[in-house]
Amino acid sequence: MNFVPSELPYSASYAVVMFMFAAEAAFVFLFICLFFIFRFYIVVKTGRNHRPGTKGPVSVLVVAGSGGHTSEILRLMEHLSAAYAPRHYVIADTDRMSEEKISTFESSKPQSASETHFIFRIPRSREVHQSWSSTVISTLNALRFSLPLVFRLQPDVVLCNGPGTCVPLCVAGLLLGILGIKKVLIVYVESICRVQTLSLTGKILYLISDYFFVQWPSLRDRYPKSIFLGRIV
Amino acid sequence: MKTVFVTVGTTSFDELIERVTSAEVTQELKSRGYERLVLQVGRGALLPAADSCSHLRLEAFRFKDSIAEDMRRADLVISHAGAGSCLEALGAGRPLLVVVNDRLMNNHQLELAAQLHADGHLLYCTCSTLTGTLRDMDLSALQPFQPGQPKNFANFLDKALGVK
């Protein structure tokens, strides 16, 4: 059936064709958005049903922010069994001290450290006191490195505790789940420094993490989805 | 030799270093029986010369790979409100006095020091109230600090993830 009336002038029929094309494109775009939203909802809601430990070793991507964050995350990992391997540590490119702390920590482990742990560097999402407009750019830059890294490593778990560096990595992990490639569990432990308020990273990841730990009762009361085991560092 | 160890972590806190080496404060420390004062000044501009104090034996440095030994030998730790410094001093079982830097705006690290103070684990003051606090402090009233338990985290995760 011919939808374009032949009596219309050329410019009008052209406009109708363009409109139909645009409408189709809009529908496809809307469909993709709805698909993503649906998949996002499924991935976030069903996270806790996923139990990678039943199938063998659990690979972990550990985000080591600078200074206190690295010390806290290594303390958290002190009692993780050998089943958590390989351990991929990701540090910000401007961080000098974390690599040494990690190597010291790993060398105290009984089994061959060279086979079960690896260290990667990505650009920092945001420096302390960095302006918000430039933060968008630096975060996108960090994402550019995070996506291929996470897509390549496909960890069972991303473990992080606060630095902005972890947001692009967690988003990449979430994306792997949304696309149906692999379910990546996001485990977030808010720093012990946070007693009354969550960090900005914490507020963002509270929405998408599978296991969200806080270390003080005042936070547990304010964030019902959080897990409270007391002080764990 | 009763020792006071002052630490500012990786920050600079010249006001504290100046206050704690003043005649007023060092006299107060001496009258409480302290004989040695060790200063870790971090990035501060002020690095007092050794033995520049008449009342106490003075030592000063910027950074060390580890201040665990200095912590261990201290009878009193005076620290900035940084979480790492506080937890290290409490973990070493040392009586701790935290001096808050009221020149730092919106310092979220105060949350931890304030909570630990509320729980009775440390004493709390500013540079201007340092002398008075040292004079009136009762270190025996401080509550012992139990270290955190990362084992609980590991156990939880094992159960949740189905790790054997």
From TrEMBL, chain B:
Superkingdom to which the source organism belongs: Eukaryota
Query: Glycoprotein: present as a keyword of the record?
Result: no
Q: Which keywords accompany this UniProt record?
A: Endoplasmic reticulum, Glycosyltransferase, Transferase
Where does it localize? Endoplasmic reticulum
Q: Where is the Glycosyl transferase family 28 C-terminal domain?
A: 3-149
The portions of this protein that span the membrane are none
GO biological process annotations for this chain's record?
A: dolichol-linked oligosaccharide biosynthetic process
Q: What is this protein called?
A: UDP-N-acetylglucosamine transferase subunit ALG13
Say which species the protein is native to: Kryptolebias marmoratus
